[in-house]
Amino acid sequence: MAADLTAIVLTKNEEVNIARCLESVKGLAKRVVVVDSGSDDNTVEIAKSYGADVYLHPFENYARQFNWGIDNTHIDTKWTLRLDADEFFTPALCSEIKDALIKHDNDDVNGFILEAWLFFMGKCLKHGGSRKKKLMVFKTGFGRIEDRKMDEHTILSSGCSIELNEKFEHHDFKDLSTYVKKLNWYATREMQDYMEERFVESEMSLSNNEINQTRSKKRFYYKAPIFLRCWLYFLYTYTVGREFLNGKEGFIYSFLYHLYYRVLVDAKIYEQIKNPKPFEKTGDLK
Fold this sequence. Notes:
- This protein has helices spanning about 20-25, 45-50, 60-70, 90-105, 175-195, 210-225, 230-240, 245-275; strands spanning about 5-10, 30-35, 55, 80-85, 85-90, 110-120, 125, 135-140, 145, 155, 160-170.
- By secondary structure, it is of the alpha/beta class.
- Strands 1, 2, 3, 4, 5, 6, 7, 8 and 11 form a nine-stranded mixed β-sheet that branches. The chain has a two-stranded antiparallel ribbon with strand order 9-10.
């Protein structure tokens, strides 16, 4: 029997991922809301075939799109799930979430943090810092995404969060060209956050110490010399961080995400400092 939970999924041309995503939470979520930002493939049709309520809304950034979903899709379940189209829940995780929802129905635990197994080019990267944690399940009315262009977290207005044991899969079935294009899109958004000096504590309570730790590390990173910090970060994560144990796929991921992406962010920062110009809306990934 499905839990008293609504899953919100943001989509844009996710026909290769969306079916597996929705199938994985079919027995968990009482309702699934898909907020689509203009797919021109079969994403919407597939979502509707799984019984999802589909809403169309122009994309500005992830945080505002998700918060729009919270505010405008008439959620009446006790719990809300933040889910991406390339994320998939195992039966064991669904079972653990159901138990946790019942156990913490009437206490001050208002959110659950989940950890991902990251799959890249078909391989699960089990070593190093490739595993991501984020607050994904929260009591409706107690959670929102902080208004940032990148590195946005779910913030609780009150109460606390706990971490569950079972992991979900982050497995994007799109090709490498799409991934590289996405990194360029991400880099523009991170540059804008940096230039707006937004690596500061949110006005809402940061109830998760891990968020504070992440922000502190990022502030420390940006104090290092531009461009040199990219190489130091890549070498550290690949060697000391043991990401070399992930094989060829792990090398490609580490090179692209921890070096190429970080150089691209620095290059965009350098360009903006040399030739300041008003920021254009990054919009959705084309």
